[in-house]
Fold each of these.
Amino acid sequence: MKKTLQQHLASDGTPKRILSLDGGGIRGALTLGYLKKIETILQEKYGKDYLLCDHFDLIGGTSTGSIIAAALAVGKTVDEIKTLYMELGGKIFGKKRSFWRPWETVKYLKAEYDYKALEDSLRQEFGDTTLGSDQLKTGLCIVAKRADTNSVWPLINHPNGRFYDSADGKNKDIKLWQAIRASSAAPTYFAPQMIDVGDGQRAAFVDGGVSMANNPALILLMVATLNGFPFHWPLSEDKITLVSVGTGYNVFKKHVAEIEKAWVKTWASTVPDMLMQDASWQNQIILQWLSNSPIAHYIDMEIGSLRDDYVAGKPMLKYLRYNFPITVNELNNLGFGKKFTEKDVESLIEMSNAHNREELYKIGEKAAKEKVKEEHFVLKALK
């Protein structure tokens, strides 16, 4: 059942599987709860040594999703990544800079958290492994945003990529930790990441979530199938399966009076989340429009779930989207044996609350128990 990297990447007409992981700060712990269930289903079917990097031919992520994606691509189990993630989350978001310390004031004005803790942890975990390393066991795509050109960069490990090893770029030499750090450099949280992208050119990267690709599912499908990218995988329901996992999301329910009285500062803190959610839902609408999803989400009263509403009259891929609405009702329905409140919801939604990481993992685990089904992964088209 195990494939070589070349077999994963090959455009040979065999069915291909893509795993897409959202950004969301410390809420990536919730993603791991879903991934644990998927891994368990696959191991019960194919054996205990079967890993997600064996099953998926392309694994990609944005921001916190890029950390998990890279760890999966080098062959780590979900339990191993959970251990890493819990330790990493405490270090990264454990302590904000102090505005009142003169020696930190200038740095604080650039970013709230010290990026050194993130860099040190990523260096320790991934060492000198590069995007071109043979330590990567499957296709990998790390989505970052190049701030100096305002362009989204899908950093991939396919040797035929235009920027992999050519006069246009030497992405194969980019250290994995640098690529992850670039994808995770959320403005206000961390300072931008500078990377030499070849020919002596320095590029400034910020979090890939500062784009339409915080949910990177659609861009991963484009990377896998468009002519401009090197994969060239056939686009059809029996050839492409796309599994997309979120980090949980907030459900807006403001009173009109709150909006009417909102101040500039209120909008400044609310707009980024609104835009990220809009981008994610737009991804979801397009992918449900293209696909035959057995778990299609209800979008709204006009378009419903787009079931049987295919772009070309037939489904072009199989699509599975797992995400959890972080609301009081949904949390209390999970059966934790405790009463969640609106205050708990506010705390869980905040992407830098590291003390929530264990609880977020358990939320993902419980949600996955209900939503992730064996038949999603062991149908004939996936064997």
Amino acid sequence: MTVAKNYLDAGELDALNRIVNAYLEFAELQARSRRPMYMRNWIAKLDDFLRVSERDILTHAGRVSHEVAMAKAEGEFEKFQAGRLAQPTEVEKQFEAMVKELKHLPPKKPTRRKRGKTP
């Protein structure tokens, strides 16, 4: 819960996912070409990739403190958890569907017992 994606807004998260997918495709092409890549190569290629896609390259630790980021992530998780808990579970949905189905069944007619012999 306390990773960077939790305090990105929906647009930023979508952009991050697209960048990661595109970069992983590039990495797979490199691997299929059997090109040896070392960590310093990957760092340089990632910077080049971000420049080509007209993205800023972070050259500092950022503007959001760890404490602020953690508080934001925890707050977002609490909202998510509250929303999730407010939704009915699959079992509850099935129970409600069965109750609704049973309400539509015709009432059962009482059966008469024959007098005389008892079992």
